[in-house]
Amino acid sequence: MSTRSKITYTFTDEAPALATYSLLPIVKAFAASADIDVETRDISLAGRIIASFADQLDSSQPVEDELAQLAVLATSPDANIIKLPNISASVPQLKGAIAELQAQGFAVPDFPEDPQTDAEKEVRARYSKVLGSAVNPVLREGNSDRRAPAAVKAYARKHPHSMGKWSMASQSHADYMRGGDFFSSEQSFTMPQAGDVRIEFVGKDGKVELKKQLSLKEGEVFDGMFMSCNKLRAFFEKTLQDCKETGVMWSLHVKATMMKVSHPIVFGHAVSVYYKDVFEKHGALFEELGVNPNNGLSSVYDKIKSLPASQQEEILHDIHEVYSHRPEMAMVDSVKGITNLHIPSDVIVDASMPAMIRNSGQMWGRDGKQKDTKAVMPESTYARIYQEMINFCKTNGAFDPTTMGSVPNVGLMAQKAEEYGSHDKTFEMKADGIMRVVLADGTVKIQHEVEAGDIWRACQTKDAPIRDWVKLAVTRARQSGTPAVFWLDPERAHDRQLKLKVDAYLQEHDLNGLDIRVMDYNEAIRFSMERMIRGKDTISVTGNVLRDYLTDLFPIMELGTSAKMLSIVPLMAGGGMYETGAGGSAPKHVQQLIEENHLRWDSLGEFLALAVSLEETGIKTDNRKAKLLGTTLDAATGKLLDNNKSPSRKTGELDNRGSHFYLALYWAEALATQSEDAALRERFSKLASTLAEQEATIVAELNAVQGSPVDIGGYYRSNPELTSQVMRPSNTFNAAIDALIQG
Amino acid sequence: MSTRSKITYTFTDEAPALATYSLLPIVKAFAASADIDVETRDISLAGRIIASFADQLDSSQPVEDELAQLAVLATSPDANIIKLPNISASVPQLKGAIAELQAQGFAVPDFPEDPQTDAEKEVRARYSKVLGSAVNPVLREGNSDRRAPAAVKAYARKHPHSMGKWSMASQSHADYMRGGDFFSSEQSFTMPQAGDVRIEFVGKDGKVELKKQLSLKEGEVFDGMFMSCNKLRAFFEKTLQDCKETGVMWSLHVKATMMKVSHPIVFGHAVSVYYKDVFEKHGALFEELGVNPNNGLSSVYDKIKSLPASQQEEILHDIHEVYSHRPEMAMVDSVKGITNLHIPSDVIVDASMPAMIRNSGQMWGRDGKQKDTKAVMPESTYARIYQEMINFCKTNGAFDPTTMGSVPNVGLMAQKAEEYGSHDKTFEMKADGIMRVVLADGTVKIQHEVEAGDIWRACQTKDAPIRDWVKLAVTRARQSGTPAVFWLDPERAHDRQLKLKVDAYLQEHDLNGLDIRVMDYNEAIRFSMERMIRGKDTISVTGNVLRDYLTDLFPIMELGTSAKMLSIVPLMAGGGMYETGAGGSAPKHVQQLIEENHLRWDSLGEFLALAVSLEETGIKTDNRKAKLLGTTLDAATGKLLDNNKSPSRKTGELDNRGSHFYLALYWAEALATQSEDAALRERFSKLASTLAEQEATIVAELNAVQGSPVDIGGYYRSNPELTSQVMRPSNTFNAAIDALIQG
């Protein structure tokens, strides 16, 4: 007999959180029948802000740091976590959330843009932990296994998403720095034994400043690298001149959310180079006003509001003038005049580049028309893969979702591996000098001559995750019978260190009959694409950044979205975390719900994750009912896809809530018709027939509420009662689910 | 002691033949000092025409078939042949030569365009053997070893040729058929034992027509393939529409000279598709006039001359009308209005594509300006490598001659290997039906369903040349310490057969320490280019077509010309043939000589070939003097390059003849200062000092004649006395050389 077990379901933000109000009651009711409790943990942006200032709040207000609790759980063998997408907050988003919480009566402090006093610095430090990608690095105590579920792939082949045609004469391309960036300066070493390292800055005067001290483990790989500010700015200027000459539109693609320290600076340079005339002319004033280009041109608009109208007009006029001699810039929203440089979180490389490639290599111009584009991505390390894919599409045409193979990913991610854990080791140089990494015994392992403005960063990659990653790659290659390619560039110092470990750890496994290769990034993506257009699958085994990029890039080509991917984090401690796809255009979804009471969010990712989670629970706790819940949920998901019961984008048609109803119906039917467990069959037969009989009524009730605005009491922290009412509008359906719990 | 030995120097056409009048006396004089006779063999187009009709000529006229004699020599171990570039005659060229010979009193018959009587067919058959690439296939009784000599590479690094900048936004590309071409229909098999095969056409009525019977050797690889006429024409139309839409210029790149049966047909379809309106409207008239689109638009201009002026005007007007709705076409000569489609021999893919790539991916438009271009190359088999290089240049910029590595070639060529020996097995289908290849026992080995107009061809590749090719690749890899890549595409039936042999024959060699790989064409060129931009060399080991294409492509990037390559044919019988680079723009050179008495032809290829030839003679006949002549000639060539004594393009400056003088001077000096052979030292000391003393006089004499027109008595067959006088205008220099012979 199995004992009660637990699945932890995360409560996050925006559309996924709204959907949770509808889906979770169903899931809880079904899971209870297998003695599984489904508990929630609030890791929303609002929740994390509140938890950060728990000591300063009214004692009646919720204060638990549920993210910290989850992080502890992730290191336990019992962990079984369903992780929904959450906000990686940019500064503007953070400020929005703070304002909303303050309005709701939470005494959280303002965000100090330019902290001066110790108190302000303390507040800023707390908020820094909330900024950007603050959740995943904490929870991801395992590497990443992402793939297209068979049902989803089959559906995509039958119902292919639209793919823009590619012209061989397309002018679009990805442009990147040739020297002067992180790639060309990377140095790397492996710790022969555990010990401390110091990151130091040595000034021109010889004075040594300790930037950071760290304790490294044995076998840990440590990298140092920097991007030259002067070369970065010269590069931006060159790309602008080039676009001006060739008539190709200019666009910028960085990841200011995830790379929350280095990329906002890169983004800021793009802003101040593009609008050079404005920043030069009004430099002193902007300084005074606290304009920060790293927050985008919106920072200018924002800060100049305090100025007299005539002065505002002059600045707006000067901004407008810039457009007359700068090349056309890609727009985020051409109707509202929101450019690529408006705020740093609008264009995120791993989503924006696949979108561009899917769209014939084009982005949208000021006139709302799509145009060939120079995609500017300063970091050459990763930008090259996009240029390779663009060249491939020019030569071979757009990918064909009806025939193409798949590129699943095994990604090195655990314990904040590589660049994605570099934020606390990233520094913008205040002066010329030397940055160096020194061992406890004084040995200098890494040394760079830097100039003021350069961005220096260090990355850590622990040995145990690497070993686990190699094991996961071999396991996946074996289970899927698919070639696996380690993407390691012999021209990168870091990858050379990794290659040594990969070679060694591969020897720990039976490789007989497996096709496991090591290729540089260009070779690897080309090899994978050549196979892909011939219908063949290839596992990409990559570092952390490529994991993130590729698990958007390939799924968006194959499936039209990355949200439909199965995303498993086999935790190193033995537990499992099941992630449910990307946030995508979640903000627009919330807006549509509030304005028209229609939620187009597709919970497919949750369905897929939940099925694996239930199966794993069943296996680990020897709970056959749980396994059965998992396999029947998979069957129900397949049927949902086949019957086209995913949410429509159009108000008045089936939305997220209706889709959940059909999932419940199909899931109940699958349980009612299985022959493995009589108790479950009986329990769900009643629900299945009730739901089938009431289908028309329920769908009518669900659709009837659509079309009018609703109030959910907040964006970042909506009112739970109001939201639940909005998200569960069918009394008939609610009653059926409630009856299951009681029954 | 060595006995007298012999070097056979070919007498060819155009500029190389003119240069021979100046260079050969020098070479003979130097070689005599090592007991080497230098004899000539006339393999010029005119000579070959005359030999073909020897039976019909005045008995006093020269009649020996020197090409046939040379072919016999090539299969002897004593062969030591210096092979200069010769004309691969197109029909217009052939007709020009015939007219000239007739005017000179040779009773050679007219070229029968449309032979009807048996006599006409007999004449046509004789001329067919003269057409196109008729010399190399006969002489090339060995595979090919081509590389950039160290001195030439060093010179190119010090004095880089111009390279057009590449823009990442370039719209240029290579476009090719996706299905319906030779690539997609290729079938291949290997003869398990010697035997006959029949190539048969089976009509819709079941009637079997024998197209060709052949005796194959054991181990011979035999391929059949076809290009669909309908798909080819649809492809051309699509490329034209695409250019019209994208504004990219249209250009065609085939090799109608070498691929003398299949490519003129392909070219003809391009003409009749581009000028579709004209050919449709005037179809019946054109038929009557004997217009043949395979000869280019010039055929229309030519044939309509017999029409009344008003009718001519109408046709010319209709041709002009075409340009208003077809895309702009690349020009061969924009001043004279000569387009890509004027005559089939103007644009030859292996020269035109490197020129385009070197020129920023652009060709010249009607207005004389360079523009982004669609390079149309129907055969996808080989076109893909150009698209790969174009993508590479878009991404990485133009190649840099000062730093780039080299891609030498080991090419499978002997005994008319592959497509280059397919001319007698190429058929344009007259009706729908089946083409098949049948063994003597009736087994059908290859079968294709074809339609009227399709181009079907078979290729042979004998086993011994393949084995020799593998051996040569291993030898070159060993001697040069360079990785060698076999370019074999697993998606090609022919290459799969070759791969089996390569794998087997590699086992016959010691591969220890060698880096020998097999890659498909895209992989191979990409691998080679990635190494090249990092300064590394990579041997390309390829089939016959790629040999031809790559030994222009890479040298033109590396050295600015392929004429400076060392091109050795280690003959399978044990002899050696030393080829001296490409013809290039030889016709323009002759024109300049006749109009301005300046010959810009660079004999560097002859110098390099001669040095290897002398060294080989020395080794084979144990003639130390010969070896010394070789090494000193190499030193002289290096000095010539260093001192910039190559011919200038400008009339009035040092030309081919002056360059020969400096070669003689430096060669004599090298011999006069060596310490290995006292006799030679003494013999050449006098010449060295004479030439050094008379340098100013000789150069003045050589330059003084320039600027006025000269008469050499013919283009295809110039008058030997007149030409010799023109090419040896310095009495001082002539006297010094004569003195050496006597001396």
Summarize the structure in words:
2 copies of one chain form a homodimer. Among the domains of chain A are: 309 residues, no CATH class; 177 residues, no CATH class. In chain A, 46% of the residues lie in helices and 16% in strands. In chain A, the strands form 5 sheets. Chain A has a 10-stranded mixed beta sheet with strand order 2-1-3-24-23-4-15-22-20-21, sandwiched between helices. In chain A, strands 5, 10, 13 and 14 form a 4-stranded mixed beta sheet that branches. Chain A is globular and about 80 Å long. The first copy, chain A, starts with a strand and ends with a helix.
- The coarse overall form of chain A would be globular
**Pair with the most extensive interface?**
A-B, 23 and 23 residues
How many individual β-strands of chain A? 24
Radius of gyration of chain A: 26 Å
Low-pLDDT stretches of chain A are: none
Mean pLDDT of chain A equals 94
Beginning-to-end CA distance, first to last residue of chain A: 21 Å
Helix content of chain A: 40-55%
Q: Name the beta content range of chain A.
A: 15-25%
Classification by helices and strands of chain A:
alpha/beta
The main pleated sheet of chain A reads as: 10 strands, mixed
Could you state the oligomeric state of the chains shown? homodimer
Strand order of the largest sheet of chain A: 2-1-3-24-23-4-15-22-20-21
What is the helix tally of chain A? Answer: 28
